[in-house]
Amino acid sequence: MKQYGVLVVDDSAFMRRAVSQLLEEDPQFTVVGIARNGMEAIEKVQRLKPDLVTMDVEMPEMDGLAALKEIMKKSPVPVVMISSHTGEGAEVTLQALELGAVDFFLKDHLLKNPDEHEHAHHDFIQRLKGIVKGRLPNVTVTQQPREKKERKLKPRKIELVFIGCSTGGPGALQKILPCFPADFPIPIVVAQHMPPSFTKPLADRFNTLCNLNVREAENGIEIKPGTIYIAPSGYQTRFKKSDNGSIKLDIDNQSDEQALYKPSIDISLSSAAPIYGDRLLAVILTGMGADGMQGCGLVKKHHGTVLVEAEESCVVYGMPKAVFEAGYADGQYEITKMYHKIITFL
């Protein structure tokens, strides 16, 4: 069994101990070192060569963002941010994801009693495994199926682009969303797995980067061209057709025992597929798990089109892999090619 070495970076001894204990409960992780600030982190990344770094944001001498910049320049390695659950914490976390961090976790989720929050601790470990395994060399998708799928792809006129993503999603979205021109003629809806209170700052941040308007979706809003709608975290987002033919978003926080995520890509696509039929383009990007697979099955049943991100550019090749292996993907592409493929459907 391969072991993965982790460097734990935090100025709090309590937090370093808490994260280290969580990691070492799993035999596949070993803590190869700790650092108390960004300066120590940079030096120890170069010396210890960990497979993964967990990085606090606020630290003395050099904070997590400054350290992340240097690590990405000098010794690139997957870095996961440990974030506070505040408005300011969300802003800084999104900056970190733009600078190259692959994921983030909330401190309060990691510190809670494991008996009460076993799922949060399990999710932490599983997502870290997905990240380190996704970054191993010589992991590629076989070329023949992909080429075969792409040759069969016949672009058709679409009326909605729906993008679903999870782990690594903000970085992937940054390579796509700013590419759309201001006169892009159809709406775009994005479902990104994030904790509550993070999707509004995500939308605000992308609004400064994109030619299109970007906003967090609201209940009852009519979706129109010229706007990218970010599905709000903590809620389910469904599509509904009005009597006058307009399409609105129905957003609620009703529990669904089968839905692990809010927003759930499966739930959103299940409502969009029968409305849009062959005019729907679903794009599944990097992420852990299989959310989106069932929804993409319905997209295909209603003659829509499904594109997935190729393994080579995914932080975690989980969601795209599930869709691809189920036979629902019409093609899979590295993230740098995805925008160019999307616009062929106009």
UniProtKB/TrEMBL annotation:
Q: Which Pfam families match?
A: CheB_methylest, Response_reg
Q: Which HAMAP family match?
A: CheB_chemtxs
User: What is the documented function of this protein?
Assistant: Involved in chemotaxis. Part of a chemotaxis signal transduction system that modulates chemotaxis in response to various stimuli. Catalyzes the demethylation of specific methylglutamate residues introduced into the chemoreceptors (methyl-accepting chemotaxis proteins or MCP) by CheR. Also mediates the irreversible deamidation of specific glutamine residues to glutamic acid.
Q: What is its main location?
A: cytoplasm
According to UniProt, the name of this protein is Protein-glutamate methylesterase/protein-glutamine glutaminase
What keywords appear on the UniProt entry?
A: Chemotaxis, Cytoplasm, Hydrolase, Phosphoprotein
Which cell locations does it reside in? Cytoplasm
Q: Domain remarks in the entry?
A: Contains a C-terminal catalytic domain, and an N-terminal region which modulates catalytic activity.
Where is the PTM 4-aspartylphosphate found along the chain?
56
EC number(s) reported in the record: 3.1.1.61, 3.5.1.44
Q: Where is the signal peptide?
A: none
Domain of life (superkingdom): Bacteria
Q: Where is the active site?
A: 166, 193, 291
| Organism from which the protein derives | Neobacillus paridis
Q: How is this chain modified after translation?
A: Phosphorylated by CheA. Phosphorylation of the N-terminal regulatory domain activates the methylesterase activity.
Q: Which family does it belong to?
A: Belongs to the CheB family.
Reaction catalysed by this chain?
A: L-glutaminyl-[protein] + H2O = L-glutamyl-[protein] + NH4(+); [protein]-L-glutamate 5-O-methyl ester + H2O = L-glutamyl-[protein] + methanol + H(+)
Q: Which residues does the UniProt record annotate as the domain CheB-type methylesterase?
A: 155-346
User: Domain Response regulatory: where?
Assistant: 5-122
